[in-house]
Amino acid sequence: MKVKNRIKEIRLQKGISQIKMAEDLQITRQTINAIEKHKYNPSLELALKLLKYLDVTVDELFQLEED
Amino acid sequence: MEKYKTLIIAITVIGGMSLGFSLGKLFIPDLPSALVAAGIGGSIVGVALVITIGKIRQKQKKNNVPDVDERTWSNMKNFYAISLYFVLFGSMLLVCILFISGIKTIELGAVSIYLLLLFMLLVIGTHIVRRQ
C-alpha cells in the first residue's frame, strides 16, 4: 500500500514556495520534492510538522492508497 | 553547545592526531621527528582548510535551507549498509583471487593503499548521496 499526499496541492493553494517551506521546516528542497512526488515518506515528526505548518488534518494531507 | 561545535570538532581532530603521532613516536623511537611534526602540522592545516571552506560556503548561501535533513541521513545510512556488503564481499573476493594467483603474503603498504582507495570511494559516494 502506498501513501499518497496532497502537499503540493495545498502548498500551491496557500501560495507557499518550496524554498520558503524548506526554510520554515528546516528541511532541504529536494526532500519536499521527493515527498510531493511520493518518492519518500516523511518521518512521523516531519509529518506532524507538515500538518501544523499547512494547518490541515492527517486525513486531508495523507491517504493510504489501496492495492 | 551549537556555538562551540566547530571548535570542539577541531580540537578533537587536532588533539587526536597529535596524540596519535606522539604515541607513535613513543612506541617507535626511530620514527623521524620531522614526520611527527608534519603529521601534526598537516592535521592543523587540514582542519583549518575545511573550516574556512565551510564558513565561505555558509556566507555565500542565499537562503536558510539546511544542507542535510532526515532524508539525507536515511540515504546515507542505506548507502553505508550497501557499501558494507560490497567492501566485505569485495575484499574476500580479492583475497581469494590473490590466493588462487599464488600470492601468500601481502605487503602492509599494499593494504594501506587498498584502504585509502576504499575510504576515497566511500567519501565520494557519501558526497553523491548527500546531494541527491
Task: Describe the fold and architecture.
The complex is a heterodimer of chains A (about 70) and B (about 130). Chain A contains 5 helices and 2 strands, in the order βαααααβ. Chain A is mostly helical. Chain A has a single domain, classed as lambda repressor-like DNA-binding domains (434 Repressor (Amino-terminal Domain), Orthogonal Bundle), CATH 1.10.260. Chain A has a two-stranded antiparallel ribbon with strand order 1-2. Chain A starts with a strand and ends with a strand. With about 130 residues, chain B is an all-alpha fold. In chain B, helix 1 (about 5-25) runs antiparallel to helix 2. The two termini of chain B are about 30 Å apart. Chain B contains 4 helices and no strands. Classes of the chains: A mainly alpha (about 70), B mainly alpha (about 130). The interface of A and B includes residues 28, 31 and 46 of A.
Strand order of the largest sheet of chain A: 1-2
Helix content of chain A: 55-70%
Average pLDDT score of chain A: 92
Oligomeric state, counting identical vs distinct chains: heterodimer
**Proportion of helical residues of chain B:** over 70%
Can I get a quick summary?
The complex is a heterodimer of chains A (67) and B (132). In chain A, helix 2 (18-25) packs across helix 3.
